[in-house]
Design goal:
This protein has a single domain (7-84), classed as Beta Barrel (Barwin-like endoglucanases). The protein contains 1 helix and 6 strands, in the order βββββαβ. It has one helix spanning 66-72, and strands at 7-14, 25-27, 36-41, 44-52, 60-65, 80-84. It has a 6-stranded mixed β-barrel.
């Protein structure tokens, strides 16, 4: 079993996520579809499933679905610095 690669960078959210309503999903450039990422921000950590590719804006490492962004508490900020495992 290989160790998870930890990343730190900017995250945003998007409303056109391809998932069941309320599911915590995200878009990542390289992680395999279906893999589960731990995303942490401001003392909160969620687990979200990769179901899309992105983000395509330089400097961002992950895009979260609206339910995932709400669970993480980042809706009012829009773009935040997160750690991803």
């Amino acid at each position: 079993m290989s160790a998870a690669r930890a990343e730190s960078g900017l995250a945003s959210y998007y409303s056109y996520a391809k998932a069941a309503k309320g599911e915590l999903t995200c878009a990542h450039r390289t992680r395999p579809f279906g893999s589960v990422l731990k995303v942490s921000y401001s003392g909160r950590t969620i687990q979200c499933r990769v179901n899309d590719r992105g983000p395509f804006i330089r400097g961002r490492i992950v895009d979260l679905s609206v339910p995932a962004a709400r669970a993480l508490g980042m809706m009012s900020a829009g773009v935040v610095r997160v750690s991803v495992e």
